């Protein structure tokens, strides 16, 4: 009886292992692909000025007001330091820190925060969540001038897609 139980357990474990192996993607595994060029390799430039940061915020705020979306909007410089921030009347208090976090992550990693959201949700790259300062929610967009990252804008207080739309309007004042 004891021998049968061991045999059944071993057979069950082997079947589980075979099932797990069958579910793995075929080589090369997506994370093992080595790109020829560095992704998101925009060089860092000089920090955005206060005047330019406020122009981006004003454009974003005007669009948010037009749509009736009270948001928090933050702009950081190329070193991910806060330059300017606005909390629209009625904007969610928790989103003050989130808007700044989105801007900082976008500047530090030189990419829109949508890239992190897609990595987690579409590609199941959960390891992304272990990286310092990542926020896997859209609404952070780099600000690039003359091919160099000068800062980033982050919006929060609505859905991720709404935050991203408003950030896009603010970013458009810089990213031409």
Short description, anyone?
The chain has 176 residues and is an alpha+beta fold.
How would you describe what is shown here?
- The structure is a single chain.
- This protein is α+β, with helices and mostly antiparallel strands.
- It has 2 domains: 2-32; 50-172, Beta-Lactamase, CATH 3.30.450.
- Helices cover 43% and strands 15% of the residues.
- It is built from 5 helices and 4 strands.
- It has helices at residues 2-23, 50-67, 95-109, 114-121, 160-172; strands at 72-77, 82-87, 140-145, 148-156.
- The protein has a 4-stranded antiparallel beta sheet with strand order 2-1-4-3.
- The longest helix is centred in the N-terminal third of the chain and has 22 residues, at 2-23.
- Mean pLDDT is 89; it is low at 13-22.
For the structure shown, list the relevant keywords.
alpha+beta, Beta-Lactamase, four-stranded antiparallel β-sheet, globular, 176 residues, 2 domains
CATH topology description of the largest domain: Beta-Lactamase
Lateral strand order in the biggest sheet: 2-1-4-3
CATH class of the largest domain: Alpha Beta
What is Rg?
22 Å
Helix-strand category: alpha+beta
Order of helices and strands: HHEEHHEEH
Shape: globular
Number of domains: 2
Query: Share of helix among residues?
Result: 40-55%
Distance between the ends: 76 Å
The second-level CATH architecture of the largest domain is 2-Layer Sandwich
Largest sheet, strands/sense/barrel: 4 strands, antiparallel
The beta-strand count equals 4
Beta fraction of the residues? Answer: 15-25%
The total of helices stands at 5
Uncertain regions spanning at least 5 consecutive residues: 13-22
| Mean pLDDT value | 89
Superfamily (CATH H level) name of the largest domain: Haem-degrading domain
């Amino acid at each position: 009886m004891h021998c049968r139980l061991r045999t059944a357990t071993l057979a069950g474990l082997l079947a589980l292992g075979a099932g797990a192996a069958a579910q793995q993607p075929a080589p090369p595994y997506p994370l093992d692909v080595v790109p020829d060029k560095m992704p998101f390799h925009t060089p860092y430039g000089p920090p955005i000025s206060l005047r330019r940061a406020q122009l981006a915020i004003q454009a974003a705020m005007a669009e948010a007001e037009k749509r009736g979306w009270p948001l928090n909007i933050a702009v950081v410089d190329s070193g991910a330091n806060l330059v300017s921030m606005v909390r629209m009347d009625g904007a969610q208090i928790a989103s003050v820190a989130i808007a700044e976090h989105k801007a900082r992550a976008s500047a530090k990693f030189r990419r829109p925060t949508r890239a992190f959201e897609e990595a987690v949700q579409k590609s199941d790259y959960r390891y992304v969540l272990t990286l310092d300062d990542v926020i896997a929610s859209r609404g952070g967009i780099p600000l690039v001038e003359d091919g160099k990252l000068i800062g980033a804008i982050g919006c929060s207080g609505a859905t991720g897609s709404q935050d991203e739309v408003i950030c896009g309007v603010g970013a458009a004042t810089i990213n031409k």
